[in-house]
Write a structure and sequence with these properties.
Blueprint: H1 2-41, H2 43-49, H3 51-60, H4 67-74, H5 86-91, H6 97-104, H7 120-135, H8 145-153, H9 158-171, H10 174-178, H11 183-199, H12 201-209, H13 215-224, H14 232-245, H15 248-260, H16 262-266, H17 270-279, H18 289-296, H19 303-402, H20 411-451, H21 455-498, H22 507-663, E1 674-675, E2 678-679, H23 693-699, H24 701-709, H25 714-729, H26 735-750
Antiparallel strand pairs: 1-2
Helix pairs in contact: 3-14, 6-7, 7-8, 7-9, 8-9, 11-12, 11-19, 14-15, 15-18, 19-20, 19-22, 21-22, 22-26, 25-26
C-alpha cells in the first residue's frame, strides 16, 4: 500500500510538474501577447523611451498576429493619403499589366493563398502591383517586388499592404533598387564585395579564381530580402528586422551565411557553388532561425565605412559616365570626319573630271576656232575678189553705157555681158551667204568661250601646260642624247665585231680584245641604266606635275567649300529668321483664332440668352393664354351656376304660388292671416292674387314671402331688387338678361 501510495504520489507529482510546465508556456505566450499589445497601444512612448528593448524584442521575432499592425507602425504607414486613391487607381489601366500577369503565377507558387489561377491571392497581388505601377511610373514594375508584396498580403488587407509597400519603396532604398538602371543594386554589390574581401579574403580569392561573381548569388538577396532564399518562417524573421533596421540586416545575414559555409565553398568549383547556394544553404536554419540571427549580429558592420564606400562608388560611376560620354563624342566626331573625307574625295574626283573635261572641251573648241578662222579668211579673200570682180563689171557696164551709141556693138556681145553679170551676182550672193554663216559660227564660238572657265583659271592651266611642255622638251632632249650615245656605242661595237682574223692574233691581244668587249658591254649596260634612270626621272617629274595639279585642284575645292559654307551659314541665318517670322505669324494667327473663338462664343452666348428670353416670353404668353382660357371657362361655369340658381328660385316661386292658391277662401279675410305663425301686411282677396310669376313679383308678395322664408343678406336683397326692376319694365325679358344680372351675384358667392 505504501509503495502504491508512493507511486501514486510520484505519478501525481509528475502530472503536476507537466501541467506546471504547460501552464508556464501558456503564461509565457500570454505575457508575450500582453507585452506586444501594450507596445502596439503605447507605440510612441516605446519608440522614444524604450528603443533598445524594442529592438531586442523585434530581433527575437514579432508574433504572427501582431505583424500587420507592428509593420505599419514601424514604417509609419497607418494614415497615408495614397490609401484614399487606391480604389481610383484600380479603375485605371497600366502599361505593365501584361508583365504583372505573367509573373504572378511564379510568385509563391506553393503557398495556398496564391495557388491556382485566378485565385484571391493572385488577384489582390495584381491589384497592388498595378496600383503602384500607376503611382510610380518611373519604376513601374520589377520582378522581385512581387515577393515583398505577397508577404505583406499574407499579413494584412490589400489597401494596407499597398500603403506599406509605398512606404518601403520611398524610405527603405527599395525604389532605387528597383529602378530600370538598378544603380542602388550595383552599390550594394560593391559594398558587399568590400566586406567579403575584408572579412573573408580566402573565400573572396576562391570566388575570383572560379569567376563566381557576387551578383550571381547576392542579387536576389537584396532584391527579395531573402524571401526567395529561405522558407517563409526564417524569411519573415529577417523581414521583421529589416522593417526596423533597413538593408543592414541583408549585409549581415549574407556574410553570416558565407562564414558558416566557407569551408564547404572553398572545395567546390563554380557549378558546385551554384548548386550549393540553391539547395543546401536555404534549409540550414529551418529549425533554428535564432542561430542565424545570432550569427548575423556577430558580423562586423561599420556604417561610416559603408558611407565612404558609397561616395567612392558614386565617384567611380560618375567617372565612368564621363568616359562613356567622351567615347561617344569621339565616335561621333570620327564618324563625321569620315563622312567629310568621303564627301571631299567625291568632290575632288568630280572636280578632276570637270577639269579634264574642260581641258578636252577647250582643246576641241580651240581647234574648231582655228578651223573657223581659216574658213573666215578664205571667205574674206573670196569676198574681196568678188568685190573686185563686181567693180570690174560695173566699170565695164559704165563703159558699155558710154558706148551704147556705138553701132559696132552687136546684140550677141550685149547678151554675153549680161550673162557674165548674172554669174557675178550669183557668186556675190553665195559669198555673202558664206560670210553670214562664218559670222554666226564666230558668234557661237564667242558664246562658248564666254561659258568656259575664267581667265585666271585659263592662265593657270596655260602655265601648267607650258611647264609640262618644258619638261617634255627636256625629256625629249635627254632621250635624244641617250639615243646618240647608244648609236655611238652600237657603231663602236659593230666596228669592233667587223674586225676579223682574231684567231690569228697572239693570246695577249685576244685577252685584250675580250677585255675591250667586256668594257663595251659594261658601257652599254651603263647607258641602258642611264636611260632607265632618265625615264624614271621623267616619270617622277610627271608625278610631281600631277601632284601640283591636284594641289591646285584641292585649293580651289577648299575655296569653293569655304564659299559654300559661308553661303550655308547665310542660308541658315536666313532660315532662322524665317522660322522666327513663321513662329511669330503662327502665334499671331493663334491669338487671332482665340479672339475669333471668344467672339463667336460671346455671340453664341448672347444668342442663347436671347433664345432663353424668347422662350421665357413664349412660356409667359402661353401661361397667360391658359389663364385667360381658364378664366373664360370659369366664367362660363359661374354663368351656368347662376342660371341653375335662377331656375331653383323659379321653382321655389312656383311652390309659393301653389301655397298661395291653397290659402285662398270664399269670404274675404277679416282677420289677419296666419301662415306658419307669420303675419302678412295686408289682406288678399281672390281678385288681387296674381295669375303669373311676374304679377306675383309685381305686387311684391314674392319678395315678402322670400324675405320671410329665406332671410338674405343686404347684398342678396339688393340682387333680388335688381331682378324685380327689369320685370316691371319689361315682361318679355329672357333668361339671358337674368343671367347677366346674376353674374355678379354668382361671382360674389364664389368669392
Amino acid at each position: 500500500m505504501r509503495s502504491m501510495n508512493g507511486s501514486r504520489r510520484n505519478s501525481g507529482s509528475s502530472l503536476v510538474s507537466s501541467s506546471s510546465a504547460s501552464s508556464n508556456l501558456s503564461h509565457l505566450e500570454e505575457d508575450t501577447w500582453i507585452l506586444w499589445g501594450r507596445i502596439a497601444n503605447e507605440w510612441e512612448e516605446w519608440r522614444r523611451r524604450k528603443e533598445k528593448l524594442l529592438k531586442e524584442l523585434i530581433r527575437k521575432g514579432i508574433p504572427h498576429h501582431f505583424r500587420a499592425i507592428v509593420w505599419q507602425l514601424l514604417c509609419s504607414a497607418t494614415d497615408m493619403p495614397v490609401k484614399n486613391q487606391y480604389s481610383e487607381l484600380l479603375k485605371m489601366s497600366s502599361p505593365c499589366e501584361k508583365l504583372i500577369r505573367r509573373d504572378i503565377a511564379r510568385t509563391y507558387p506553393e503557398h495556398e493563398f496564391f495557388k491556382g489561377q485566378d485565385s484571391l491571392g493572385q488577384e489582390v497581388l495584381f491589384n497592388v502591383m498595378k496600383a503602384y505601377s500607376l503611382v510610380d511610373r518611373e519604376v513601374g514594375y520589377c520582378q522581385g517586388s512581387a515577393f515583398i508584396v505577397g508577404l505583406l498580403l499574407m499579413q494584412m488587407p490589400e489597401e494596407e499592404a499597398f500603403c506599406v509597400f509605398v512606404r518601403l519603396m520611398q524610405e527603405y532604398r527599395l525604389r532605387e533598387l528597383f529602378k530600370p538602371s538598378m544603380a542602388e543594386l550595383g552599390l550594394c554589390i560593391y559594398q558587399f564585395e568590400y566586406m567579403l574581401q575584408e572579412q573573408l579574403p580566402d573565400l573572396n580569392t576562391h570566388f575570383r579564381s572560379q569567376s563566381f561573381h557576387t551578383s550571381m548569388y547576392a542579387s536576389s538577396w537584396f532584391l527579395t530580402l531573402f524571401l526567395t532564399t529561405f522558407p517563409l518562417p526564417v524569411a519573415t524573421r529577417i523581414f521583421d528586422i529589416f522593417m526596423y533596421e533597413g538593408l543592414e540586416i541583408v549585409f549581415r545575414v549574407g556574410l553570416a551565411l558565407l562564414q558558416v559555409n566557407q569551408t564547404e565553398l572553398m572545395q567546390l568549383d563554380m557549378e558546385g557553388m551554384s548548386q550549393y547556394f540553391q539547395r543546401v544553404i536555404p534549409h540550414q536554419f529551418d529549425s533554428c532561425p535564432d542561430k542565424l540571427i545570432l550569427k548575423a549580429y556577430q558580423v562586423k558592420y561599420n556604417p561610416k565605412k559603408m558611407k565612404r564606400l558609397e561616395k567612392e562608388y558614386a565617384a567611380m560611376k560618375s567617372k565612368e559616365m564621363e568616359e562613356q560620354i567622351e567615347i561617344k563624342r569621339l565616335r561621333t566626331e570620327n564618324r563625321l570626319l569620315k563622312q567629310r573625307i568621303e564627301t571631299l574625295e567625291k568632290e575632288s574626283a568630280a572636280l578632276a573630271d570637270r577639269l579634264i573635261q574642260g581641258q578636252v572641251t577647250r582643246a576641241q573648241e580651240a581647234e574648231e576656232n582655228y578651223v573657223i578662222k581659216r574658213e573666215l579668211a578664205v571667205v574674206r579673200q573670196q569676198c574681196s575678189s568678188a568685190a573686185e570682180d563686181l567693180q570690174k563689171a560695173q566699170s565695164t557696164i559704165r563703159q558699155l553705157q558710154e558706148q551704147q551709141d556705138n553701132p559696132r556693138l552687136t546684140e550677141d556681145f550685149v547678151a554675153h555681158l549680161e550673162t557674165e553679170l548674172e554669174q557675178s551676182r550669183l557668186r556675190e550672193t553665195e559669198t555673202l551667204g558664206a560670210l553670214r554663216e562664218m559670222q554666226d559660227k564666230v558668234l557661237d564660238m564667242e558664246k562658248r568661250n564666254s561659258s568656259l572657265p575664267d581667265e585666271n583659271n585659263v592662265a593657270r592651266l596655260q602655265e601648267e601646260l607650258k611647264a609640262l611642255k618644258v619638261r617634255e622638251g627636256e625629256a625629249v632632249a635627254s632621250a635624244r642624247e641617250l639615243k646618240l650615245q647608244l648609236q655611238e656605242l652600237s657603231d663602236t661595237w659593230q666596228a669592233h665585231l667587223s674586225r676579223g682574223g682574231r684567231w690569228k692574233e697572239s693570246p695577249r691581244k685576244l685577252v685584250l680584245g675580250e677585255l675591250q668587249d667586256e668594257l663595251m658591254s659594261v658601257r652599254l649596260r651603263e647607258a641602258q641604266a642611264l636611260a632607265e634612270g632618265r625615264e624614271l626621272r621623267q616619270r617622277v617629274v610627271e608625278l610631281e606635275t600631277q601632284d601640283h595639279i591636284h594641289r591646285n585642284l584641292l585649293n580651289r575645292v577648299e575655296a569653293e567649300r569655304a564659299a559654300l559654307q559661308e553661303k550655308l551659314q547665310y542660308l541658315a541665318a536666313q532660315n532662322k529668321g524665317l522660322q522666327t517670322q513663321l513662329s511669330e505669324s503662327r502665334r499671331k494667327q493663334a491669338e487671332a483664332e482665340c479672339k475669333s473663338k471668344e467672339e463667336v462664343m460671346a455671340v453664341r452666348l448672347r444668342e442663347a440668352d436671347s433664345m432663353a428670353a424668347v422662350a421665357e416670353m413664349r412660356q409667359r404668353i402661353a401661361e397667360l393664354e391658359i389663364q385667360r382660357e381658364e378664366g373664360r371657362i370659369q366664367g362660363q361655369l359661374n354663368h351656368s351656376d347662376s342660371s341653375q340658381y335662377i331656375r331653383e328660385l323659379k321653382d321655389q316661386i312656383e311652390e309659393l304660388k301653389a301655397e298661395v292658391r291653397l290659402l285662398k277662401g270664399p269670404p274675404p279675410f277679416e282677420d289677419p292671416l296666419a301662415f306658419d305663425g307669420l303675419g302678412l301686411a295686408r289682406h288678399l282677396d281672390e281678385d288681387s292674387l296674381p295669375s303669373s310669376d311676374e304679377e306675383l313679383l309685381g305686387v311684391g308678395v314674392g319678395a315678402a314671402l322670400q324675405d320671410a322664408l329665406y332671410p338674405l343678406s343686404p347684398r342678396d336683397a339688393r340682387f333680388f331688387r335688381r331682378l324685380e326692376r327689369p320685370a316691371k319694365d319689361s315682361e318679355g325679358s329672357s333668361d339671358s338678361d337674368a343671367d347677366e344680372l346674376a353674374a355678379p351675384y354668382c361671382q360674389g358667392l364664389d368669392n
